[in-house]
Amino acid sequence: MAPSTRPPGRPRSSVDAEVFAATLATIHELGYTRATVDRIAAATGIAKTTIYRRWPSKGALVTACLVDTFGPLPPGGRDRAQDLAAAIRFGARRIAEPGVAAAFAGVFTDAIGDPELREILSTQLQDPYRKVLIESLGLSEQRVLFFIDVVIGTLLHRMGMTGEPMVESDVDALIAMLQRELGVRPWLP
Amino acid sequence: MAPSTRPPGRPRSSVDAEVFAATLATIHELGYTRATVDRIAAATGIAKTTIYRRWPSKGALVTACLVDTFGPLPPGGRDRAQDLAAAIRFGARRIAEPGVAAAFAGVFTDAIGDPELREILSTQLQDPYRKVLIESLGLSEQRVLFFIDVVIGTLLHRMGMTGEPMVESDVDALIAMLQRELGVRPWLP
DNA sequence: CGGTTTCGCTACGACTAGTATCGATACCGA
DNA sequence: TCGGTATCGATACTAGTCGTAGCGAAACCG
To answer: Is residue B23 a contact partner of residue B35, using CB atoms and an 8 Å limit?
Structure first.
């Protein structure tokens, strides 16, 4: 309603997109540990303090970056089997993007022993997909969480072990396996 | 043959087991990042320099610790379905042990951008199981690597997201799913 | 033009990986 | 018993990292 009058003072420069891009690029180039906030700021062309004014920690920055990168799941159709396949391919494409898998692993590492960060991770990154998938796939919460573990875990483990994204044929196998497991058969309503 | 005469000089004190135990305990208590080599050494009751004389880096130490913790796969029988189930439960038990999942995530993070460490990880940790499973399950290398990705990735993702090991019923679902996927059906030869 | 807020910049404190050094110590063989 | 050798513990050190503090300059509004 009230179009929230602009607050007084100098407005924030809109550099979130540039920061996210620089974050993934830097992580891709140097890995999570050596992708320092200093370097990310320099790559963006802003000061490190500006980053810390927006995100409370490096882990929170990278998590926000992942949330931004993944974005909303494409809307599904009326075929649950195709929706499931589309969701898996969606995850596979995102995780194959440069820096994403390394960012994921780094946030997981930081989240252990930092319950606050784990909360952010679970709430901001996983919850949206959990809710949408319960609806669109017509599965219980337990089944959907299992589904997410299998898909994301498998794709990340492949990237972590080999440094390369999972090949197409293995993604196809992952899709077929989960279609069978979840009783969502292709070619049948 | 020649029982390799003991080298001259003061022999190394045999503290590997204690170091591994202290490593996992410290990682479990503080997380990978705050589990410093200083603290691990103090928990073991030895000097930090002694640790660096045996392992070239923190990542190598933790990898060796994981190799030690996982150990060899229990020998299989003649029933491939049961062997597959046993292998999955073996992984689930190990990953549920305190500190193991956090150690895994930390090593993955360090291994990105450190090809040397990734080589150690792949060679020392994954290769033995790969070879044994190709033999005992009678599957192609590609299928076995896919199998490992699914099992370890899924279990680690659950631990990373929730901080809790996967519940028994979900492990059962994982087993059933992979028995179907790999064409290794229970109750049938 | 004054008020308010963010910006870039520099400096700083606390902590960590990994290295260097050195006297003390443990084992072996003569 | 004693010399040779290699490890051990302890300390100090370098280089790098996260995150914070302080300050003048800049941007926007009324």
So the answer is: yes
